[in-house]
Write a structure and sequence with these properties.
Largest sheet: none
Number of helices: 15
Distance between the termini: 43 Å
Shape: flat
Number of strands: 0
CATH topology of the largest domain: Tetracycline Repressor, domain 2
Structural class: mainly alpha
CATH architecture of the largest domain: Orthogonal Bundle
Number of domains: 2
Strand content: under 5%
Oligomer: single chain
Helix content: over 70%
């Protein structure tokens, strides 16, 4: 049951979103939120992301059943049965997260948290995924809103460093997800989902991933010129270089194993960048 709930609410993704929001709190100049405010922010982001993840699986049960990667999800297997109670639970989770952020933090933080869930659940899942290869490009903005939510908890003013990190998340998502889509090309063909590799082929998609990652790494350097230090720069460049290396391998041989290595390299890059940002600020302080 626990494993199924973790799968349903996509808690791994939720934890990543929570980490990005907390990292934004640390790197954004301004007031220092209290421990209670930080806890509310973390739980609000996690709760809203979990609601969006569950809605994604609720809405896409038909697609999940056609894909080997997702055919063991609880709504597909029948472990959980779709119905109004699930819709009510998912909606309540989102309302609780957004309301808590509005009451304890501020309206702007709450708005960003809502937009993060909305972009994943509605813009990506409902409007775009079945219609266009741009689905993960536009829908990927959901990750950027977690960064903006963390920054807004500190100050309503848009600062350069969190803005750059939000752009990093925006460009990170396509490289991350298209690497997975190359590895799982047959799944998306079977499901009829127009992911980029299905539309243009694996080799061309790998080239697009490389170009996007180069832009991503370039943007990740921007915070260094707006107050971040050498520890941050080292994390951004090390993770970025490794991600580019895996992208190059995938371009030369766009096979599922190398595409999965690129996928995992994207996670390494993001964790190293965000960890470097947090450590950089805390060490300086």
């Amino acid at each position: 049951m626990v494993k199924q709930l973790i799968s349903l609410f996509k808690l791994r993704i939720g934890v990543v979103m929570m980490f990005t929001a907390l990292a934004a709190v640390v790197v954004t100049p301004g007031r220092s939120p209290t421990g209670g405010e930080v806890l509310v922010l973390a739980l609000a982001v996690l709760l809203s992301a979990a609601a969006a993840g569950a809605f994604n699986q609720y809405y896409e049960t038909d697609l999940d059943g056609r894909m080997q990667r997702t055919d063991d999800r609880p709504f597909v297997t029948g472990s959980f049965h779709r119905g109004p109670l699930w819709v009510a639970l998912i909606g309540s989770m989102l309302v609780t997260g957004v309301a808590a952020a509005a009451l304890v933090l501020n309206g702007l933080t709450a708005l960003y948290i809502f937009l993060g869930a909305f972009f994943y659940a509605v813009v990506y899942t409902v409007w775009l995924k079945r219609r266009t290869w741009l689905n993960v490009v536009i829908g990927g903005a959901s990750g950027s809103f977690a960064v903006l939510a963390g920054a807004a908890a500190v100050t309503p003013q848009m600062e350069w460093v969190p803005l750059a990190l939000a752009l990093v998340l925006f460009f990170w998502t396509p490289s991350h997800f298209w690497s997975l889509a190359i590895a799982r090309h047959r799944d998306y063909v079977a499901a009829g989902v127009p992911m980029l590799p299905v539309v243009v082929g694996d080799r061309r998609a790998a080239q697009v991933v490389l170009a996007n990652t180069l832009l991503l790494v370039t943007i990740s350097v921007v915070p260094f010129f707006h107050g971040m230090g050498w520890l941050y720069l080292a994390g951004a460049l090390t993770g970025g270089a490794f991600f580019i290396y895996r992208n190059l391998q995938m371009v030369y041989h766009p096979s599922p194993p190398l595409a999965m290595r690129s996928f995992f390299a994207s996670l390494f890059q993001l964790v190293l960048l965000l960890s470097g940002a947090v450590v950089d600020v805390l060490v300086v302080v």
